[in-house]
């Protein structure tokens, strides 16, 4: 029974930890650490008072484990080479999405990363996971008033990061498929038509694979970068490009000669590409699926 109670909560705990940390591997490690603490606590509770609210207890433990990790990682994150992007959350396009796109979009997760750890925790617990302020205060060991202030500050920072436009999924799939072709065949006009004027491209190599060391902002700058890479042969593809749902939106899994990478898009209100996020850091790509029915060459 003890294990069954925990396993029923594990997916929720993992989703919370992923948003806090931006890493699926670490989120699963945190969930496992929460399980070990839960088992010890329930073994102790068998001789005394049982845990009155297991889900709240587990959320509290998971949140505190994430905060501990964030504090320990501060120096490593500051020394990270180039832009940091979250580990891709990859799902097959044929499956129902586990999360709403706006709650796991790369832009939203990046906005969360810019918050302080406490702001992030309060915002996620209250605004995303719908815990009341009393429960949030208990989880974090803060007063309700302090939690309300933290949530208000966080909300003002992340409000603009959530996608504001609803674009049909089939249109996004076509957009992703179309993007995969022009960069390889050198169709600058088609590429220009796809990109919003203020499009941004961010790539994350983590110092382990080549990637731009700063965000590329503006359609002309993005096209210039892609054209330069194509001219140098850096856009070579070593197999079939696969389309998958990546952080809520149709994206690409691209097999390059030096290893796979993911390309994630976020649209604007006109159905153009407003942002391109490319993850090349191999440490963030070990969980990529090995097969996908949605492929195109």
Question: What does this 3D model show about the protein?
Answer:
Strands 1, 2, 3, 4, 5, 6, 7 and 8 form an eight-stranded mixed sheet that branches. This protein has helices spanning 2-21, 24-45, 54-78, 101-104, 106-113, 117-128, 133-140, 144-158, 169-180, 182-185, 188-194, 219-231; strands at residues 90-91, 195-204, 216-217, 241-246, 249-256, 259-267, 273-279, 295-296. The protein has twelve helices and eight strands. It has 297 residues and is α+β, with helices and mostly antiparallel strands.
Helical fraction equals 40-55%
The H/E string reads HHHEHHHHHHHHEEHEEEEE
First CA to last CA: what distance?
Answer: 50 Å
Radius of gyration: 21 Å
Query: How would you sum up the major sheet?
Result: 8 strands, mixed
Q: Give the DSSP E fraction (strand runs of 2 or more residues).
A: 15-25%
What structural class should be given to the helix and strand makeup?
A: alpha+beta
Shape: elongated
pLDDT < 50 runs, ≥5 residues: 291-297
| Mean pLDDT over the residues | 87
User: Tally the helices: what do you get?
Assistant: 12
Strand segment count: 8
